[in-house]
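Hi all, long-time lurker, first post. I run a small reading group and we've been trying to get comfortable going from sequence to structure in the token notation. Rather than ask abstract questions, I figured I'd post a concrete chain and ask someone more experienced to write out its structure so we can walk through it together at our next meeting. Sequence below, copied exactly:
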Amino acid sequence: MRPARRSGLLLPAATLWQRETVRFLRQRNRVAGALGTPLLFWILLGSGYGSSFQSPGGNAGYLAYFFPGSLVLTLFFTAIYSTISIIEDRREGFLQAVLVAPIPRAAIILGKVLGGATVALIQALLFLLLAPTAGIPITVASFAATTASLALIALGLTGLGVILAWRMESTQGFHAVMNLVLMPMWMLSGALFPIAGAAGWMGWVMRLNPLTYGVASVRSALGLPAPGLPSPPVTLAITAAFGLLTFAAATLLAGRRPSAAHP
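-- Answer (accepted) --
Happy to help. Here is the structure in token form:
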């Protein structure tokens, strides 16, 4: 890649990344919602099941089993909240101004995805500090492996959020899609219950869900079992492929010729 072309891609992307990060961190209600909701779920569900649930392949209770799913839920909410800004930017006219600028559409998507993924990763790492309270020891190696898995999941979820928000006209419609599509995607990722004990048809749905392999990679990084799924390198590779696929699809969507109703 030529230096001029590289700067034409990276500089606008870095500018949008900075804007997305600063904008989200200034909205404290979104920060609290994205971090507080998974924390509340983890405490209530984990304490409710308590020791009555035994993790497959191990002796951990539900607090430990549900912890990786809660980490991914933190990424989920933050990525969704950050991509809502696309709808707000369109309404305010900012997105139209960016789209007519002489920069590649890929730079716009890259900045949006990196901005949302960065904020999501920061919040998930804050949540990760609670792992010892669930009986999950954290070492330097496990922290690094978990961070890598969470970063890939954050990229994939943010890219998916961009795809869904790009043609949306209202935040209400976006929330409807989130409740209908994205929440079941998280629920059927092995976050709430193991794939080994699911019904036959549901087990196949979970295996077709790319988020299942992201949750499994986080479990493996934390030293928790993920029975019924491929080895950690394979789950990590599938998670990385999911992130690349959503970024490519978002870039293609942004590169389409605009209609009268959309930028």
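A couple of things your group might point at:
The mean pLDDT is 82.
The first helix runs from residue 3 to 26.
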